[in-house]
């Protein structure tokens, strides 16, 4: 009887132990991650993308300079001792090309004093780019004539500006009206800038400047030079204002050779 009670007691104790063990919580494992709980991983070694550059002011930007509008054809006045072959050699072309271009019936019969059309590769004249810091932005108020304008400076003062190195016909003279109109057209291309030289003002108190216009394509055109290359201005030497003198002289030579503008009626 004792053995029976002992076995029964052990059996009941084992069943109770098994039941209590089933109620213990399982070991906690890692919670499943969700997209919201994943922090972004930053690669510290990866380069940081640069921000888009903002538009630069003219004071920070390189200057792209536009070439002057030089002619592709010139008119050469035949001299007494000229031959067609000598003229062709002088201008880097051929006698046959001159015959065709000028519709000459006989290449041996050229008359002194007559004009001969000379076609050649266009000569490219590009001014030296000014330093951005040398350009003063101004607002155009009025075009006085071919070489004089009125402007408003940043400090709100008004100035009359005389173009350095050139002179255009006075009112009433041949080509004067066309020079004024062409000057206004060039200045209307875009923003206007002034560049000083060695002398600040002329004897009449006018501001002496090289005049630049920023065209629609972003390039800068020297208006003094463009008017000269178009034959609408002649060069005036006024040392020490010689920053672009050599360029202006070349432009004038081409305009004279093509008999453009003021040179069309010149002897």
Describe what this molecule looks like in 3D.
There is one protein chain. The protein is of the alpha+beta class. Among the domains are: 79-112, no CATH class; 132-263, OB fold (Dihydrolipoamide Acetyltransferase, E2P), CATH 2.40.50. The protein has helices spanning 2-22, 84-90, 95-102, 176-187, 223-229, 245-258; strands spanning 73-77, 115-119, 135-145, 148-152, 158-163, 166-167, 191-195, 207-214, 220-222, 234-235. The strands form three sheets. It has a five-stranded mixed barrel. Strands 1-2 form a two-stranded antiparallel sheet. Helix 5 (223-229) runs parallel beside helix 6.
CATH class of the domain at 132-263: Mainly Beta
The strands making up the biggest β-sheet line up spatially as 3-4-5-8-7
Tell me about the largest β-sheet: 5 strands, mixed, barrel
How many H/I helices? 6
Average pLDDT number: 81
Q: How large is the radius of gyration? A: 42 Å
At CATH's second level, what is the architecture of the domain at 132-263?
Beta Barrel
Q: Please tell me what the overall shape is.
A: elongated
* Content of β-strand: 15-25%
Order of helices and strands: HEHHEEEEEHEEEHEH
Main structural class: alpha+beta
Low-confidence segments, ≥5 residues, pLDDT <50?
15-56
The number of strands is: 10
* Named CATH topology of the domain at 132-263: OB fold (Dihydrolipoamide Acetyltransferase, E2P)
Distance between the termini: 155 Å
Helix fraction? 25-40%
